[in-house]
Specification:
Blueprint: E1 2-6, E2 16-20, E3 30-39, H1 42-49, E4 65-73, E5 85-89, E6 98-102, E7 106-108, H2 115-119, H3 122-135, E8 143-146, H4 152-163, E9 167-172, H5 175-184, E10 188-191, H6 197-203, E11 209-214, H7 218-224, E12 228-236, H8 250-255, E13 258-261, H9 264-270, H10 272-287, E14 295-300, H11 304-312, E15 319-323
Parallel strand pairs: 8-9, 8-11, 9-10, 11-12, 12-13, 14-15
Antiparallel strand pairs: 1-2, 3-4, 3-6, 3-15, 4-5, 5-7
Helix pairs in contact: 3-4, 3-10, 9-10
């Protein structure tokens, strides 16, 4: 079968390419999926650079969010049959014609979602849910500031924030992309080219944002410290800007806010019962049509690296998916 293989860790994706590899066989507790779509996430890129929390030795195939049809089932798997349309999360292996996934991480694909939408859902919406509900304790009527709002995890945060009853301010660097985020449901959009601190203050009558969702880091984090409300929660989702920010401890002391780290997958591993509740909730929302991921583009496996670069170059509004 064909798969996107990282054979050497590099910073520029030069160590990644499509190769022929053996078709895998499911072990107990696993299923083999004929992949229909796999979404591109920043951790996929970081894995190929050796910069993600999970360290894999090459060769390996990245790809976390998968949808497709079950082709084979290992022992000790209940609730699924060959031919079922499924979706869910793996830690790697998705950018291939076939992928092995633990049955524990699978869901039946909702009938109201396409394979491309289903592959775009799990990681982004689980991150948004754990961030806003479990770690941020976002309440109806509060103001949520979402940075990097046109990306996959940003769009999911806008979607979940509105569902939870918050006023959502979305930021980004492109007026064109922000217009799409506004149409998607954000109450206000702000271009960060000239800063956003005063604009956030103006929109909140000087109070600042109650919860700030930051997958960007760097200068965006620094300025967020200046426009967060007293008792606010500044959620550290990632560092797509490339710089890991720091904060002087007198700032959270004087302004009375919290800096909260978010690792959605690790949260579920540390607290399995809550982790299962998180997954059940986001997929219940999907089946009810309360949430829907935005798919920017669907590319063939041979153009997977184009999808990676689109993400790196901030060209994406929502998610890019790879369809073998």
């Amino acid at each position: 079968m064909r798969a996107l293989v990282c054979h050497t860790l590099t910073d520029d994706l030069s160590g990644v390419g499509v190769r022929d590899v053996p078709k895998p066989t499911p072990k107990p507790g696993e299923v083999l999926i004929k992949v229909a779509a796999t979404s591109v996430n920043f951790p996929d890129i970081l894995l190929t650079q050796g910069k993600y929390q999970l360290k894999l030795e090459p060769p390996f195939t990245p790809g976390m969010d998968i949808s497709g049809i079950i082709e084979a089932i290992g022992d000790d798997v209940d609730g699924f049959e060959v031919g079922d349309a499924v979706c869910g999360g793996a830690r790697f292996g998705g950018f291939a014609e076939y992928a092995i996934v633990s049955a524990a991480g699978l869901q039946k694909k909702p009938d109201n979602m396409s394979f491309e939408e289903a592959a775009s859902y799990s990681a982004a919406y689980l991150t948004a849910y754990v961030s806003l509900v479990r770690r941020g304790n976002l309440k109806a009527g509060e103001t949520l500031l979402v940075h990097g709002a046109s990306g996959g995890v940003g769009m999911a945060a806008v979607d979940v924030g509105k569902l939870l009853g918050a006023t959502v301010i979305a930021t980004g660097g492109s007026d064109e992309k922000l217009a799409k985020v506004k149409a998607y449901g954000a109450d206000h959009v702000l271009n960060t080219a000239n800063g956003f601190r005063q604009q956030v203050k103006n929109l909140t009558d000087g109070r600042g944002a109650d919860v700030i969702y930051d997958p960007v880091g760097g200068d965006v984090f620094d300025e967020s410290v200046r426009c967060i409300a007293f008792d606010g929660r500044l959620l550290v989702i990632g560092f797509t800007s490339g710089r890991i920010a720091t904060v002087s401890t007198n700032m959270p002391l004087i302004k009375g806010f919290s800096v909260v780290g978010v690792r959605a997958g690790e949260y579920g591993r540390q607290f399995p019962e809550r982790g299962a509740e998180n997954v059940a909730q986001i997929w219940d929302w999907a089946r009810q049509g309360k949430t829907r991921p935005a798919v920017h583009a669907a590319l063939p496996l041979g153009r997977a690296l184009d999808g990676f670069r689109m993400l790196q170059n901030r060209e994406v509004v929502g998610k890019v998916v790879i369809c073998p």
